[in-house]
Specification:
heterodimer, A: 112 residues, alpha/beta, 4 helices, 33% strand, B: 421 residues, 6-stranded mixed sheet, 5-stranded parallel sheet, 10 helices
Chain lengths: 112, 421
């Protein structure tokens, strides 16, 4: 998994690409922890370029979601590919994640 | 070994050179062995413990390059560092020696005053590196032995006797690294009901296996108390919230089979859907998640529900973990997408022991025998029980009650059920 981040005020936009699997958890966790330390508390994950996710990758996302929430922050997912969405639906995680169609929509809904 | 004097084998065809190197390295607590050529050096290594070899490259009988090839061809000697020295200052020879595995080098043609501190430095560093490597190998060996022992304990926890009313069960468990995070169990409840569990603790290794081990007594207690898949999972969720950190979670499927009412009540917390085969229609129904993972969300937020399925005679259920559903072929396709359904349907009329073996062989072929996760699956065939329900109460003799379930025309009545762990 490749990841890059962009910070806008207290919002961090993380763009993920490639497969999200067991080996991705350390990178993802490090980026989120880094953001939290720098004062970010709203995270937007752009998943458009994600090619594949398995249950360990999903677990990594959920673990980050859990950490962010404990710190009083929020995490939104945008442009979620079909395979990723199917797995989230299968595991009922669509009830917990804020899933939006576009980056703009996610930015606008911050602060609500 | 720590505390023992390192033994250095000096290999050079010139006696004067060997004497000079020994003088250079004296009073540092080293012991020395000598050899005139590569052949003699190999013989000395076979007979003594050697911690370092200082090796001349140009020697009769067996030269330095051939010595390096022969030395490192033996797995017992791969940790012995070799410092090559040569009058050959050409880079090609030095590169060749390094490519053959030598640890370091120096050239004889350098001024003696320079060599007098360079050689002891290189020797000290090489011996230190070897000590570290030996230490790591020893710790690794201890860890591997402990993992093997933990793996045996984990198998001990799995149910061996799967005798249960109205269910034929065949189970298969293949952990990825010695110990795994997968777990399954079957336990009898009142009135000949049976509770089953299949679960997967995220991650691999010792921590996941320990959480899986805790799962057993908790599952037993909760499912016996509540006889409800949903309430069992709810209590497990509470426990795992405190037991595990953010990085760990558990997926689990719990089912309770009532052979008199012919029902399977189930709840699925984010676990790969078990595949239910309806014998009458040949249809496969995936028992999808009815709730999210365990261990991540507080009770107020953790949502799940329980569902009830009607069980027909000869119906089958396949419980899997993601080691099966997400097993990948070399081409990158997932076994769980289409292949699993196909294999499961193809085995509909075959005995469950054969089904289990067939499924394993299919998985091995599909993945090219490359696994990156625990592989666990359980094959269940349901059988109806007819006749009066037997009510068993603790400490009471069995009381026979009138039959309360619906009759299943054409059901196979078997006096006993076979299970295998």
């Amino acid at each position: 998994m490749q990841a890059s981040s962009l910070m806008q005020g207290t919002t961090a936009v993380l763009t993920l690409s490639g497969p999200i699997e067991f080996s991705s958890r350390t990178t993802l966790r490090a980026m989120v922890d880094d953001g939290l330390v720098k004062g970010q508390h709203d995270f937007i994950l752009d998943l458009q370029a994600v090619t594949f996710i398995d249950s360990s990758g999903l677990g990594a996302l959920v673990a980050c979601f859990s950490t962010v929430r404990k710190q009083g922050g929020s995490m939104k997912l945008v442009r979620v590919p079909k395979q990723v969405y199917s797995l989230m639906e299968l595991t009922k995680l669509t009830h917990f994640f804020d899933i939006l169609d576009s980056l703009e929509a996610a930015m606008q809904s911050d602060g609500q | 070994m720590a505390g023992e004097s390192p033994i250095i084998l000096i290999t050079d065809d010139t006696k004067v050179n060997r004497a000079w190197m020994k003088r250079c390295l004296r009073n540092r607590g080293y012991q020395f062995l000598e050899a005139e050529n590569g052949q003699e050096a190999l013989e000395k290594i076979r007979m003594h413990r050697v911690d370092l070899v200082i090796l001349d490259l140009v020697m009769p009988v067996l030269d330095g390059f051939t010595f390096l090839e022969k030395l490192y061809a033996d797995p017992l000697h791969t940790s012995i560092p070799v410092i090559v020295n040569s009058s050959l200052a050409d880079l090609t020879s030095i590169q060749k020696a390094l490519a053959l595995g030598s640890y370091d080098y120096f050239v004889k043609t350098l001024p003696k005053e320079y060599l007098q501190f360079i050689l002891p430095l290189k020797v000290r560093n090489a011996i230190h590196a070897k000590r570290l490597l030996d230490d790591i190998c020893e710790k690794q060996a201890v860890l591997e032995r402990e993992i093997q022992a933990a793996g045996r304990y984990q198998r001990f926890l799995l149910p061996k006797d799967l005798h249960t009313a109205g269910m034929e069960v065949e189970a298969f468990f293949h952990p990825y690294i010695g110990v795994g995070g997968d777990f399954f169990d079957f336990i009898p409840l009142t009135e000949d009901k049976t509770a089953c569990l299949i679960a997967d603790v995220s991650g691999h290794g010792v921590l996941s296996a320990m959480v899986a081990a805790i799962l057993k007594p908790l599952f037993h207690q909760y499912v016996k108390d509540t006889e409800s898949p949903l309430h069992t999972l709810r209590r497990l969720n509470q426990d795992f919230l405190t037991l595990t950190d953010d990085a760990h979670y558990i997926t689990a499927f719990v089912g309770v089979y009532d052979p008199y009412r012919h029902t399977l009540c189930y709840a699925n917390a984010g676990h790969p859907p078990p595949l239910y085969l309806h014998q009458a229609t040949d249809a496969i129904e995936a028992l999808k998640a009815t709730g999210v993972f365990l261990g991540l969300f507080e009770d107020a937020e953790w949502m799940a529900e329980e569902k009830v399925l009607s069980v027909g005679p000869g119906d089958r259920l396949l419980l899997v973990t993601d080691g099966v559903s997400e097993a990948q072929s070399e081409a990158g396709t997932c076994f769980g997408t289409d292949d699993l359904h196909k294999v499961w349907r193809d085995m509909a009329d075959v005995g469950i022991e054969e089904t289990s073996q067939h499924l394993w062989q299919h998985l091995r072929t599909f993945t090219g025998d490359r696994f990156t996760d625990d592989v666990t699956f359980v094959v269940i065939r349901f059988q109806a029980i007819s006749g009066p329900r037997v009510l068993r109460l603790p400490n009471d003799p069995a009381q026979v009650l009138p039959s309360s379930g619906r009759e299943s025309p054409g059901a196979t009545f078997l006096p006993s059920c076979r299970g295998r762990g």
